[in-house]
Specification:
The complex is a heterodimer.
Chain A: E1 8-11, H1 20-33, E2 38-41, H2 50-66, E3 70-74, H3 82-93, E4 97-100, H4 103-109, E5 114-116, H5 125-133, E6 136-140, H6 147-153, E7 161-174, H7 179-183, E8 202-206, E9 211-216, E10 219-227, H8 232-238, E11 242-245, H9 252-263, H10 269-279, E12 285-286
Parallel strand pairs in A: 1-2, 1-11, 2-3, 3-4, 4-5, 5-6, 6-7, 7-11, 10-12
Antiparallel strand pairs in A: 7-10, 8-9, 9-10
Helix pairs in contact in A: 1-2, 3-4, 9-10
Chain B: E1 7-11, H1 15-23, E2 28-31, H2 49-61, E3 65-70, H3 80-92, E4 96-99, H4 102-111, E5 117-119, H5 128-138, E6 142-144, H6 151-161, E7 164-172, H7 183-188, H8 192-195, E8 204-209, E9 212-217, E10 220-226, E11 241-243, E12 246-248, E13 256-258, H9 263-269, E14 273-276, H10 283-301, E15 322-323, H11 326-329
Parallel strand pairs in B: 1-2, 1-14, 2-3, 3-4, 4-5, 5-6, 6-7, 7-14, 13-15
Antiparallel strand pairs in B: 7-13, 8-9, 9-10, 11-12
Helix pairs in contact in B: 1-2, 1-10, 3-4, 6-9
Classes of the chains: A alpha/beta, B alpha/beta.
Chain lengths: ~300, ~325
Amino acid sequence: MNALAPARLTLGPLLYHWSAQQRRDFYLRIADEAPIDTVYLGEVVCSKREPTFAPHRTAVIDRLRAAGKEVIVSTLALVTTQRERETIAELIAGGLMVEANDVACVQLLAGRPHVVGPYINVFNEGARDFLVGRGAVRIVLPVEMPAKSIGIVAAGDARVEFEVQAFGRQPLSVAMRCYHARAHGRTKDHCQLVCGLDSNGLTANTIDGTEILTINGTQTLTHGHVVLLAELGALRRAGVRHFRLSPQDLDMVRVAALYRDVLDGREEALAAVETLRPLTGNVPFVNGFLHGREGLAWT
Amino acid sequence: MSPRYLELVCPAGTPAALRAAVDAGADSVYCGFRDCTNARNYPGLNFDVDELREGIAYAHARDCKVLVAINTFPPAGGAGPWQRAVDQAAAAGADAVILADIGVLDYATRRHPGLRRHLSVQASAANAPSIAFYRENFDVKRVVLPRVLSVEEVAELIEEIGMETEVFAFGSVGPMSEGRCFLSSYLTGLSPTSEGACAPASHVTYTEQDGRMLSKLGGTTLNCFARGEPAAYPTPCKGRYVTNGRASYLFEEPIGLNAISILPELKHAGVTALKIEGRQRSRAYVTQVVTTFRQALDALACGAAAPVPAAELKGETEGGRETRGAYHRGWR
């Protein structure tokens, strides 16, 4: 492993709708305490949430950067309105590295260096090469991708780095319709940001009582947390350099420390999995997609 | 023959369905090869090369175009079948290919610059900059719009992009952004995006329990319904889930899309073509739906103004009920 560039931990964009205060406190603690190299900041799910955090945004970015962390601005996964396009253009103009999550953002970036987020389908070398030619310097691979495919796509291209989500609920779909509002009998236009009630999303059970999905506004996530700890070494050797921890309302500083310890060889992966369990309550772990199985499987 | 009102693009899941659609008055039919290169990779469906060639001859002899859907996403190291499908569609004389993957689009653009390219709904291009990306890079001539837009949004988009669009007129209501939905593979391990089958039949089971039917996908229960109660095919987005203690169709009701009553609105919005969904449906379905839309379009082309009644299609929609989808309510 010595020949490999050091593995880096990233904190993915916050997908849930937390209050401005909770967001601020969360990121300031990350800045001060978490062994995280890169923080993705920005709204991916719903543009109606964007004003909530706006007053604290600059201060949080400054604090994260002062703590030595790279800050990348994440953008919407499904862009529809003119206002949303303008927001993305403003974020691009802001000068920070941007994570594009809709092809619209790639177009608006017009060749500038950027990160391709996990909501843009890069399943093969053809898509990779084309997007690298258009300025992609890092690609966050789709959650559905199995290890075998990751090994092929992430192999041998010095122009681009790869990132894989290693912790947290995996995004499964985005939609125009807001299911959080729908579950509360409201329309999207009159949602009153009801998604803010559920800091870890709204659990959807099957009718026979199995917890299966997590609703987060217009987004649907897995119920289980993906946990890639035993797989970190193989992923590094396959060419993945960045490992994404997706924020959940739990002790993310502790989670980050655990992943760092495993990456640095201070902790055994299987022991770390057991350490992780009490931190995540009763939520099951999943890793099926990486192993080429149904996503909800745990191998 | 009266001037064309809107191009009628019809499903051809099999050679027989292709002939049925052509005979019923399709302006174009779309079909795919019998493998994972198209998004309806179900047993018993689709075409081999010879069938495609024969289908194209049949259609062209009757002034009907053939569009070949190669609209899934190749896995890493496995683009061969997709590239071959593009080559074969070109060699067979297809009028266009319908593509979604950036790598496949790039290949088709370089290898077959003269082969017309349409952007599949699987590319999820719901806004002008996305569409501009595909047009500038791959000279895409037509975009199939995601069925998540209202008529007003469709009109605004067409005004801005100024290119051909195709919209869904009849079929299912797809609430998710298509081409990037991993719900089915989360439950089954088989990917709609790369293997072309959402809720594959091999993973669907129905069992009877206390006089009610239980539908499952993989090991996951998606619905429980009484005999005679409308129920959709068990894709994950048509299942019943419990949130906050209440069971509901969280994503979408078992209901079909039917836009026949708003054809003048779609025409006014600048739409070029109407897509009828249903490559997995029967030949009788194809004949019924295509005939009905053909009559409606011909009447409108001759100046009929009144909205067209849709009663004859009720039996063909999912769950036996119909909606105008996002076109009017816009999901806002």
